[in-house]
Design brief:
The chain is an all-alpha fold. It has three domains: 86 residues, no CATH class; 113 residues, Leucine-rich Repeat Variant (Alpha Horseshoe), CATH 1.25.10; 144 residues, Leucine-rich Repeat Variant (Alpha Horseshoe), CATH 1.25.10. It is 61% helix and 0% strand. The chain is elongated and about 90 Å long.
Length: 475
């Protein structure tokens, strides 16, 4: 109730006391919540211009912003907008507190309206040389552009892509800046009206070489994983294929894929559950690399390079993976590679027919369709009996959920609707990614949810919202 007084100096003392009581004390934070503290504190930030009061109030909000119970209450009270008002303050300590608080609240504020001004200021903040400012600005931008088409479009139109690339170039080995910046770029290059503009902007601002370099170890796996997803999105733009190839992205992806697959297989052989490495499972890297190679394989030159790196045995092996998403992207990349006769013969020689026949019955329609297309392509030189068996399998499995689809296919040349087409021309088969983060982090599944971010639709290895940097906050 004391927060309802209107004497700024008295309020400054009151909020200072609240900060001391709440700091490191979860019970006190919940008492503040139960007594309407978040709403009263947000109202102070919205209504006063006395710097000491704003600073002490922002300190309380910063402490409360690491509390899962208080966070939604602060956001719902208009906390993001109220804090954003002070990002251009002449008081560095106030700006710093507001930035940290925004960063910590932003993972529950992805659907908030009225943040246009905040987003533009955050893009401008990327020109700062202050590490804390850059850490907060990139993290907040990453969260606020997740699954929010309007925010992604606004940031792209506000030169956000250029600003994020320059931030990555200046950040060096500071992964607290680089990783959220890469994640923000991944959001901006996918699933909104200006996504293609963003994909082109990365190239035009000379970002591709710097981004590909981030695949190098010893970068942490979360950064590598985010970079793989961004590269996949960049490959959706045909104009990016040549610079990606010049940056040697394909050998690097293949190298990562082999390493991650070997690590995953070691745990399978030992009968141990695969541990997370810095929060990332190696099978997620396998899926990400294969998915990125799938998109890159749309280009004939890239297809040739992928084939020459002797990847087909591994892709065929991945068809046996117990992870449905990995089966799907493996079938997808084989589908693209099989457009070339030499690669189709190599796929057949590796014994791919058996697992592909099994995948025709996959619950995942995308996996089944890719498998069908590969089977068709590798059966072109087979005897009539083999082709008939494949045709019967396709009739029984691929169209079992939609009998009308078979009738809709225009035959005379072939009963296969995908003949002479690249995989990516088929409807509803734009490959996507699965959740990048676990548990309490909002994710970007795609598939039928075209408004969502992601790196593989239908399966979803997506770009998730980042959790608060609670460990960076001393409370």
């Amino acid at each position: 109730p004391l927060l309802n007084k209107n004497n700024p100096k008295f309020l400054a003392i009151t909020t200072d006391c609240l900060q001391l009581l709440a700091y490191g004390n979860q019970e006190s934070k919940l008492i503040i919540l139960a007594n309407g503290g978040p709403q009263a504190l947000v109202q102070i930030m919205r209504s006063y211009n006395y710097e000491k009061l704003l600073w002490t109030t922002s300190r309380v909000l910063k402490v409360l912003s690491v509390c899962p119970s208080n966070k939604p209450a602060i956001v719902e009270a208009g906390g993001m907008q109220a804090l954003g008002k002070h990002l251009t303050s002449s008081s560095p300590r106030l700006v710093q507190n507001c930035l940290w608080t925004l960063r910590n609240l932003s993972d529950v504020a992805t659907k908030q309206e009225g943040l246009d001004g905040v987003l533009k200021i955050l893009v401008n903040q990327l020109s700062s040389d202050d590490v804390n400012v850059l850490t907060c600005a990139t993290g907040t931008l990453s969260n606020l552009t997740c699954n929010n088409s309007k925010n992604k479009t606004l940031v792209t139109q506000s030169n956000g892509v250029e600003a994020l690339i320059h931030t990555i170039l200046r950040a060096g080995d500071k992964e607290d800046i680089t990783e959220p910046a890469v994640c923000a770029l991944r959001h901006l290059t996918s699933r909104h009206p200006e996504a293609e503009m963003a994909q082109n902007s990365v190239r035009l601002n000379y970002g591709i070489p710097a981004i590909v370099k981030l695949l190098n170890q010893p970068n942490q796996w979360p950064l590598v994983k985010a970079t793989i997803g961004l590269i996949r999105n960049l490959a959706l733009c045909p104009a990016n294929h040549a610079p990606l190839q010049e940056a040697a992205v394909i050998p690097r992806l293949v190298q990562l894929l082999v390493k991650a697959h070997q690590d995953a297989q070691r745990h399978v052989a030992a009968g141990t559950q695969q541990p997370y490495t810095d929060g990332v499972k190696m099978e997620e890297i396998v899926e990400g690399c294969t998915g990125a190679l799938h998109i890159l394989a749309r280009d004939p030159m890239n297809r040739m390079e992928i084939f020459r790196l002797n990847t087909i045995p591994l892709f065929v092996q991945l068809l046996y993976s117990p992870v449905e998403n990995i089966q799907r992207v493996a079938a997808g990349v084989l589908c693209e590679l099989a457009q070339d006769k030499e690669a189709a013969d190599a796929i057949d020689a590796e014994g791919a027919s058996a697992p592909l026949m099994e995948l025709l019955h996959s619950r995942n329609e995308g996996t089944a369709t890719y498998a069908a297309a590969v089977l068709f392509r590798i059966s072109e030189d087979k005897n009539p009996d083999y082709r008939k068996r494949v045709s019967v399998e396709l009739t029984n499995s691929l169209f079992k959920h939609d009998p009308a689809a078979w009738e809709a296919v225009s035959v005379p040349r072939s009963p296969f609707p995908w003949e002479n087409q690249s995989c990516w021309e088929w409807p509803q088969l734009d490959p996507g990614y699965r959740p990048m983060y676990s548990g309490d982090i909002p994710l970007d599944p795609i598939d039928m949810h075209m408004d969502m971010d992601g790196d593989y639709p239908m399966d979803a290895y997506s770009d998730g919202v980042r959790a608060p940097f609670a460990d960076h906050m001393l409370a």
